[in-house]
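User: Could you go from structure to sequence for me? I need the amino acid at each position, not a summary. Structure tokens:
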């Protein structure tokens, strides 16, 4: 058997890191962030505790990585650029992507939502999320300015709250949730 190439080692490393992160997401959501341990994450990931520390310096770094990765992924999917005005079709795409991502990976989003409501995690999440959310908030606020809303920041917050609620209800009752009707209602109301 030929020795592994640097690319193969990098791929193995990324797969292992992903495996650890997904195990941590489950453990943090199920046992709470502060109620969990790196030993529990290692057990869930089927790796040694020492191996985890080859990838992450601390449990907090694992949590931060989970948060940053999720938001980076969403921002990439949403194609956020606050310098480019959001069009109506772009706004509709934000609604579609934001809901479709929950449909595609409900387990990940359930775990994330569960984690996000833990009081000891929320301050850390906000610290990590706000720089990531800022471009989205600016873009959405600018969209509502262009639509002539008197208080575009309040409208952006209202829209975000509605979207959060839709995502949560979709996670709670995916079988009966009228996804397409709700998407259209959001488009009618906000776009």
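Assistant: Here is the amino acid at each position, in order:
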């Amino acid at each position: 058997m030929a020795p592994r190439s640097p690319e193969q080692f990098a791929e193995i490393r990324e797969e292992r890191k992903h495996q650890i992160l997904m195990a941590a997401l489950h453990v943090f959501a199920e046992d709470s962030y502060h109620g969990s341990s790196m030993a529990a994450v290692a057990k869930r990931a089927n790796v040694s505790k020492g191996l985890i520390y080859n990838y992450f310096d601390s449990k907090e770094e694992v949590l931060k990585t989970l948060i940053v990765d999720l938001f980076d992924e969403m921002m990439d999917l949403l194609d956020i650029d606050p310098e480019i005005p959001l069009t109506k079709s772009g706004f509709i795409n934000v609604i579609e992507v934001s809901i479709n991502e929950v449909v595609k990976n409900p387990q990940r989003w359930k775990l994330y939502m569960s984690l996000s409501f833990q009081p000891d995690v929320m301050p850390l999440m906000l610290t990590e999320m706000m720089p990531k959310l800022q471009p989205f908030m600016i873009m959405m606020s600018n969209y509502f300015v262009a639509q002539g809303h008197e208080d575009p920041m309040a409208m952006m917050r209202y829209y975000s709250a509605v979207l959060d609620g839709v995502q949560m209800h979709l996670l709670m009752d995916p079988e009966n949730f009228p996804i397409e009707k709700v998407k259209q209602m959001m488009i009618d109301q906000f776009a």
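One structural detail worth keeping in mind: The chain is about 75% helix and 0% strand.
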